[in-house]
Predict the structure.
Amino acid sequence: MPEPRPRPPKASPGNGVLLTDLYELTMLQAYFDEGLDGTAAFELFMRTLPPGRNFLLAAGLEQVLDYLAQLRFTASELAWLRRTKRFTPAFLESLAGLRFTGDVDAMPEGTAFFPDEPILRITAPLREAQLVESRVMNLLHYETLVASKAARCALAAGDRLLVDFGLRRAHGAEAALLSARASHLAGFTGTATVEAGRRWGIPIFGTMAHSYVQVHADESQAFERFAMAQRGNATLLIDTYDTERAAHRVVALAPRLAAQGIAIRGVRLDSGDLAEHARRVRAILDAGGLTGVTIFASGNLDEFRLAELRASGAPIDGYGVGTRMNTSADAPYFDCAYKLQEYDGEPRRKRSEGKATWPGRKQVWRAYDADGRFAGDTLSLADEPQAGEPLLVPFVRSGAAARARTTLAESRDLARRQMARLPEPLRSLQAATPPYPVVVTEGLRKLAARIDART
Amino acid sequence: MPEPRPRPPKASPGNGVLLTDLYELTMLQAYFDEGLDGTAAFELFMRTLPPGRNFLLAAGLEQVLDYLAQLRFTASELAWLRRTKRFTPAFLESLAGLRFTGDVDAMPEGTAFFPDEPILRITAPLREAQLVESRVMNLLHYETLVASKAARCALAAGDRLLVDFGLRRAHGAEAALLSARASHLAGFTGTATVEAGRRWGIPIFGTMAHSYVQVHADESQAFERFAMAQRGNATLLIDTYDTERAAHRVVALAPRLAAQGIAIRGVRLDSGDLAEHARRVRAILDAGGLTGVTIFASGNLDEFRLAELRASGAPIDGYGVGTRMNTSADAPYFDCAYKLQEYDGEPRRKRSEGKATWPGRKQVWRAYDADGRFAGDTLSLADEPQAGEPLLVPFVRSGAAARARTTLAESRDLARRQMARLPEPLRSLQAATPPYPVVVTEGLRKLAARIDART
């Protein structure tokens, strides 16, 4: 009897090898024909910061490592490729045995970083390093996009509770899940997305929808029934008809529930002037003796609204932040690149207008001031040691794990510590002047000039 | 021997029932405790148009119908819910048998629509209609977002070839796949995403990356090898070092390849002033006798850049459009709502500030002028017939298909015909003044007033 096939490590949806750009496969066909299979080093970095941003937060490495570990062509994928008549039989046969056998160096998830700094390097036989380009970018770009936005929300919200509410307008299923993960990593306490709770152990939060209130004959009845079903854990949505009137209803209801041993946990505001409603509702609740009932707010929130609400002193205890966070609405994409920096021991450099890159395998070194805050980064060649802490560390060697995977809790803790070490001007929601210093070494500059002179 | 279990219909990643907001489940627990299970009608609509937009294009219904058809809780999902200790055993037991048994009325994919017009109505037992809210919105919102943006690109590009290049910066795997589908539906010819070609038969396109040029000793050699591997189908990327010099290299190479019976199909520009480069490259190619070699352009394109390039008369034959299309960068989300409009035969209305909705089950009627162009829509109650064509049609009755599924090709054809029927001012990339007229019937207005008076 055959052995049962080992389960691929944590297969996640979308990790099929055909989730790639066609040109990766056509290039692999050409490399196969040419017999080109030297070692290639590709690095992933962001070319610029979006307007108003001061730093980015690396996330998504865990998903990249899963993807690489399970990289393979199934028989049915190869059969489909054969039917496209775009590839030679010998080439397709060669793909059957393809696995990821290379190295991965990366900044751990939760590391703050800056433009031109590689956050990931893949060093592998050419076809492996090329093939994975599309999906590696797709994963690392999106989680970094969300973590970077969520980190700003966390800075703006201070000590208030933040919960991801973004499933419904996330760009598809995976965006909903990965944004729950990346926002938790960056400082959100939890998410409303149940599957993200199941998959990663992220705390899940939920209140009620307007529809719940609407199916009941009156609002008070809806509140009472929900509080009873939730046995002390209910957050009541109070803006379906008239927010302050609903707050009075909560006050009237509380003693009736208390008689049955049931407390109301909180109320939620979801429309109108949140600061003003929060003040009025707080006063109504307090006057009714409900000082322990929390106020939770949601509705088109982002770091700017959170900062305004905080500055206004609005008595809001927590926030549901959704769409604008997980679509990174002010900057829905980064200028992310995955570029060949070295092939067969020779550094390479792309020189396209406005898109030139620093050649060679590189390292990023971070210096700290006396308080432990970031004092400046140095971008160097990998074999050109500098003062400071090297940020890229080995994660995979020859296809095998080179260090234990960090847990999501550990990455979250790193992100928290990184935020605490950000220089004060970088904690602002506006662009800091001057921006954080990233110095390029003389060695790297000379190499770039030498390559330019050569080609 | 047991029967083999029937395969769930076209399961797609992310369609697990726990891809939902926690509050859907806590509301279901409350409904279960209360014994509330009347028939609910929810409608999905967009509250507003983003700035500069004149219409939206409905897409994603196919994925919604798949999701509803396979809706069920697996034993392991129920076991996990049990472990959260948030739900009663009797309630969880009741979920085991849950299937979608309701009705779906919707605008067919590819229909142009306007604010406040429902594009989907789900009429079902309360728990079913409520539970599916999060994922139904997630699917329909995103594909409509992309189709609406891609339709503008198609209007701007005229008869030029458009190809989706967006996998790498799409928000996750599903966004990459669904945006390939939605953009094809809205007028793109194809996509670079291989899996989208496999899944839906969308034509796939590919060129080459800068890395391919870079691994070769010189650019001419890279072009020659790629052209040979692609056997006449090669589009050569010519901006890695110097665009015009590379065009001359293509001209020098062509006779050598022709001697082996190999033609060059096209060249691609990916940086710099695309119009200016295209003119120079066209002149170089034409002077070299390569009048049949096409010019393909990519790099940060959207409908505005496409319109500029078209207006400039740049000799560009086709475009790769990626990130800005599939993140809908100027409007990365719509103000999308899924609202209870009727419960147990009684119309309902949410009145939250700035978020009031039209109550009751509704229909949208479209009138046409003598040329067949849209002449105005009417929003009415579902049982209040008006002049014009009713846009919401039955897709599901009591959980079963009420009409044959349309193919993607048919939806694409409908979208094309809808674009042709758009009034001229709506074809502009700027906001039309006045906007397209959507009249609300007297019957609907009276109903809203009656409900407001009642609560």
User: Anything to note?
Assistant: Residues 147 and 174 of chain A are 15 Å apart (CA to CA). Chain A has two domains: 38-146+335-454, 158-326. Confidence is low (pLDDT under 50) at residues 1-13 of chain A. Residues 133-157 of chain A form the longest helix (25 residues).
